[in-house]
What does this fold into?
Amino acid sequence: MSVDWCKANYEKSITSRAWGATPYDAGWDGSRRHGEDLPASAELRAIFDEEMALGTVPPWAEEIIRRMIGPLPMCGHYAFPLPLVEICEAIGRGQAPATVHGCYTADAARKTRMAFTVFCLDAWLQGAPLDAAQAELALRDDQGKDWPRIAAAVYQALGAPTPPKRLAVRRLVHRLRWWIKTLVWDDDRRNRFQLDAYLGDARGDEAHFSAYGNSPFGDPYFEERKPPEVKQLDADLCRAVPHGNALLDRIESTWLCAPKAFRYVERIIIEIGALGTGRPPKTNVSLLDCEDTYPDAASHKAWYDSFTASLTAWLDGDGAARPELGEPTPVTHWLVRLLRHKLRLFETHDPFGNLVGAKSSGKRGTRTI
Amino acid sequence: MGDGMQWSKATYEASVSSRCWWYTPYDDGWDKCPSMAEDAELRGIVEMERALGDVPAWARQIVERSIQFACPCGHYLFPRPYLEALDAIGAETPATFVHGCFTVARERKRAMMDYVLCLDAWLAGAAAEDVARELAALGSRRIAWDAVCAELWRVLGERTELKELLVERLIHSQRCKIKWSPWDDDLASEFGRDLFLGPIGKVRNPAKIHCYIEQAVPGFDEGASPRVRRLEARLAELCPDWKQMQFHTHYGWLCAPKAFRFLERLVWAIGQERPPRPEDRVPGFLQIEDTHPNQDEAREWWKAFVAALDAWWQGQPATGPVADDVARRLGAATPVKRWLVRLFRRKLRFYASYEEGLDRLINPRPNAARGSRSIGAQEPK
It folds into this structure.
């Protein structure tokens, strides 16, 4: 049975729910403003037709769209390609996983690493002598890093404490602790880290935003801004620092789940250190010895090119191209085609394009796949 | 005297029995403690030791570790530390980690972190109901957090600079204890890894001083933290009777049976902007009863325990569940074990008489707030 390709039918479809963080998210009438023409997309129409041909969409397939493809991280996620592999496995298995490894998810090792960075900032903030901070860090053999050297680099970058720098570091520390507390993982339901620190409503806000596939763990972005202490801190920061709003925005954008989170924090530390000096920050240096946390562009591009080619081959009937998907069925074909189309939009319109090399920029990491 | 032993300072000091009197008057030594010369029980113990000939290394180490560092207040896991000493004797194997003073398992740390969260939320200006919701979902204990938080906010009352500084100082102090109190799986390395709470190396970890722990455990000098110095400098200006208040915020060991009650009294006093006083009648508002042993049960258990020890080393029969447990832990009697148990028993006699220590647990005052943790309650490994 053929279903008309029109706004009303599209909006009723499951297909329409898959386009978070793409121009299609603006809807039938709004996508043109963001560089895509949804109604004119032949590929989207073909995907819609595949869904309509199914008659009924099984609940597991709807769940994969709702929890995995719809909220797929537009940055690619630090654990890339885990979110993509996980979707393929879920499609092949006919079941979404208990924990979706996407937006606002990070494992304990990454959190611990960020906690050590916060320790360096906290020690500086308190006026602790560098050697005192280093003495404690020297006891930590976690993750094979020379933490005393990292602490020295952080202290040097921040320089002598001034009131504006202290405000900025306080705000940064609060935000980083918030990420450490609220990002979830299979073994971490916001119940492992920072349990003695009140940093905002740890439930996040699912009602107004999303849980990114991991209900009831709501979007934490805005809740951390709400405690009176933070509001005061934000106001003080914006008063004390030229263009404080922009710095605050960057501090709030330090998502620990993002591929270059540590590099981003590194740049902010350098920026804070330059406050009041009259000199532009020299951001092209390394403080945190974190190159291994962010992507080696060539490796990511190679993997991704191979991945998308294998999706296409699979869609064209080569069931062995991605064994985890199994042999194509109408439902799985529809889901995979939809995924491929979403990835193409991501490549063009989102930071995802940086990750997989289409428009790669900035400092290169050493993390390979 | 069986071997014609001369009961003298030299005899005593040459004995292994002389190496276990920490936290007793005998720790001052023979010359400063005239009653030692008159102590027939101690003399009998030393005679028993001499009759053994050479004391085996394992027995000497049990004296120097488990008996020397037996916990004088009973510990929050009472009676576990005492039973562990018997386990060591029974297995003829000295402990490598004595669970005693300043040692705290992660479950208790988690329980304290919930209250630190409350205080931190108050300090951040959050509403009581906000933090109550978080604790209802994530708190380590299932209690009525809405009531706890509402009461805590009420008790702290109107915000003042003094209260804010005192709460901040109290939070710091509790986070230190959470961070540096060791356990088998936590050598001051598992908590507070993002927090600078004072330099290490300038002081020894008190658990390394007052307990036997084979591994290295760093000490943290909280008082040398620049933040603490700034806080305390301001508090010294603002707080009436600051020295007394400083004492109370520094102390309140997490390993003590009534650590949470201590916190409750201190928070209540902060609400009054003055140090706690012995005569304060502080109503319970933190719902902490399950964090300390029930003193009435402790009293009954203790009677049975010391009677069982007395009977065991003398080879006399004893019955009842506590005596059975003691016998099971000690295993087959040997002369070395009998001597060790008699020595341990002598030391415990001192502890039981300490008004500020074990005596409070095993001889509770009629009006003392009672804990609800059963003596037989499950304990961490």
